[in-house]
Amino acid sequence: MSRYSAITGWGMCVPEKVLTNADFERMVETSDEWITSRTGIKERHIAGPGETASTLAIAAARQALERAGIEGKDLGLIIVATVCADYPFPSTANLVQHALGAQCGAFDMQAACSGFLYAASTAHQFIANGSVKHALVIGVEVLSRVMDYTDRATCVLFGDGAGAVVLSASEEPGGLLGFTIGSDGARPELLWIPVGGSAEPITHEALEQRRQYVQMQGSDVFKFATRIMGPAMEEALARAGMTAAEMDLFIPHQANLRIIEAASKRLGVPPEKVFVNIEKYGNTSAAAIPIALCEAVEQGRVFPGAHLGMVAFGAGLTWAAAVVKWTAPVGPRATEREEAPVTRAEPAGVGS
Ligand code: ACO
User: Where does the pLDDT of residue 333 fall: very low under 50, low under 70, confident under 90, or very high at 90 and above?
Assistant: First the structure.
């Protein structure tokens, strides 16, 4: 029997350390004016020593489990979307599974910034066909570890963080109503890390050339993003039997404010229905949409019955979109009031 998969839990975690545009003015030839006007980014969170994909993922996951009112042992599946796994192998999902005391299958999924929606739509299949009751889906990145902090064209754009949701089987119509995923691998070099895989193992020469870091042809990626986001969202909406006008909140991937504005315009979504938090986090890749979702709930912009549209694009090139009908109550978590407020350490440089 086909079942609905509802979001019943959600959580996020970002490192304490923040790098502002002013910090980047001291590191590379750039300016707050350039970064703000070209991207919308003001600051981003950067992992400190000891913070890894798994530590951020586990923290976000614990919040999501608590919100869902379940424990790790209740999970039937864990998928972690990331391009910044703790290790080439084993998967980060294995580490998360152990830490949460889960006894289920766990695997990483790699679709860059589209990864969270790829993972959510995969988890949905396990729920819809009746094989899993609760699935944990996490998007997490520690992109600061693969950034070239001498390359102003990339290093100002990205940040670290994790977002997680619990998808639970439900008989009530709602949850993930429609989705689409896409891939065009014709030009992997548009956005990639060229060295460190089986095509080009790490050598001293490669390290000297800084080829172990993210490389991007920004304007080509920009054009791709503005072309694909509208149609991808429309396809997911059509599969849900909806139009863009019926979305209560549009939560696009947070890569560049100008890309978000172009996609919103193309879809005819007014600014008050578009969720934007890129100014605080930069592009956190697979973590961007679940982090945005958490903040949207926290800000009271998500309510039972709301239809949410989410769309992402990323390295690959990949794209994905999903429509979710929200069904969960949105009150605070049990321990939320006791939690300490987020404190911010003085930025003291990059990464660890
Ligand atoms: N500060 C100052 N100048 C800069 C900076 C910087 N940080 N970065 C680039 N420039 C310069 C360039 O060198 C160039 O100078 P030139 O004209 O003398 O050669 C000039 O600014 C213009 O560069 P463009 O690349 O044309 O600038 P553009 O307006 O396209 O903005 C940007 C660049 C922000 C990177 C944009 O292309 C973009 O956002 N692209 C999409 C990137 C993206 O979203 N990637 C993530 C995909 S998701 C994933 O999977 C991770």
Answer: low
Tell me: do 193 and 259 sit in the same domain: yes
CA 117/CA 167 separation, integer angstroms: 12
Contact 123, 132 (CB under 8 A): yes
Query: What is the dihedral angle through the alpha carbons of 328, 334, 335, 338, rounded to the nearest 10 degrees?
Result: 110
Ligand 1 atom at minimal distance to the Cα of residue 258: 39
Q: Are residues 61 and 77 in the same domain?
A: yes
Domain that holds residue 272: 177-325
Q: How far is the CA of 85 from the centre of ligand 1 (A)?
A: 26
% of the chain with per-residue pLDDT over 90:
92
CATH number for the domain harbouring residue 247 = 3.40.47.10
Return the residue whose CA atom lies nearest to atom 48 of ligand 1.
314
346 belongs to a structural domain: no
Task: Establish whether 113 is a catalytic residue.
Answer: yes
**pLDDT surpasses 50 at 54:** yes
Q: How many CB atoms lie within 10 A of CB 159?
A: 31
Pairing of strands 77-81, 105-109: parallel
**pLDDT tens digits for 302-326?**
999 999 999 999 999 999 999 999 9
How far, in Å, CA of 178 to CA of 193, rounded?
Answer: 32
pLDDT for 334? 61
- CA-nearest residue for atom 5, ligand 1, is 153
The number of folded domains in the chain is 2
Backbone torsion region of residue 291, taken as left when φ is above 0, otherwise alpha when ψ lies between -120 and 50, otherwise beta: alpha
Residue nearest to atom 11 of ligand 1 (CA): 153
Q: What is the pLDDT of residue 78?
A: 98
**Which two tokens mark 29?**
């030839």
- What pTM, to 2 d.p., does this model score? 0.93
